[in-house]
Amino acid sequence: MTPQANIKTPDEIEKMRVAGRLAAQALEMVGPHIVPGATTLELDQICHDFIVNEQNAVPACLGYRGFPKSICTSVNHVICHGIPSDKKVLKNGDIINIDITVIKDGYHGDTSKMFFVGKPSTLAERLVRTAQECLYIGIDMVKPGTRLGDIGHYIQTHAEKARFSVVRDYCGHGIGAEFHESPQVMHYGKPGTGEVLVPGMCFTIEPMVNAGSHHTRLLPDKWTVVTKDHKLSAQWEHTLLVTETGVEVLTRRDEESF
């Protein structure tokens, strides 16, 4: 797929706005349910019912390349693609990433957020905050003329300044009628390299930041990705539109001030 395939028409952009807003609303809705004693399967069922019955939309993850559930729930040392389960009971001190992608009228909105279960450790709190700062640093750089390598470089620099590491094996991506389109959006890199942003591009920035090394391990279920050293990981994600003058955060939540 050529980079030009990722340039959206005004009609497509409007559909992306709707899908992004629905994904943000689903993420806001599930927050109060993330408490000690809840299972990740319960969170999946709550989100599934909301997306299907309240939003009249489609949970994109369900059945995508065989993924068995409607959202991803990644707890503590799980980096991404955690599969909801009735065996995974949340406990006080856990951190969890909820990753939700909604399809509405054929277009995708993809977003994720970290939640604290009860009271987090000082390390967990700092890691989660740093990962969010990495996302916001990336978003602030999005405008016509910026190179993707610059975005990755500044995300990586911020994480490493806090003595954390950025995952190399998984990245952000173009998005639209397809869940994953070009370009790939790395969260590390060299300044002055990578694709140049132009108006109409839609993609995600979703830095995965580890408390230890950046190395990953894929579990036998072929989905769940964990830190190789079993240390904590945190991730935040937004779907973005490059505008004529900067960026529009299509999955912005009410709590955010973009």
The shape is: globular
Radius of gyration: 17 Å
Indicate the mean pLDDT: 96
State the distance separating the first and last CA atoms: 31 Å
Beta-strand portion reads: 15-25%
Q: State the order of secondary-structure elements, H for helix, E for strand.
A: HHEEEEEHHEEEEEEEEEE
Query: How many strands appear in the DSSP assignment?
Result: 15
- Structural class computed from helices and strand pairing: alpha+beta
Largest sheet: 4 strands, antiparallel
Low-confidence stretches: 1-5
Helical residue percent band:
25-40%
Number of helices: 4
Could you please describe the fold and organization of this structure?
This protein is an alpha+beta fold and 258 residues long. It has four helices and 15 strands. The protein has helices spanning 10-30, 40-54, 122-141, 148-161; strands at residues 58-59, 72-75, 78-80, 95-104, 107-116, 165-166, 172-174, 181-185, 202-205, 208-210, 216-218, 225-227, 233-235, 238-242, 247-249. The strands form five sheets. Strands 1, 2, 4 and 5 form a four-stranded antiparallel beta sheet that branches. A three-stranded antiparallel beta sheet has the order 3-12-11, with no helix packed on it. Strands 6-10-13 form a three-stranded antiparallel beta sheet, with helices on one face. The chain is globular. Residues 1-5 have low confidence and may be disordered.
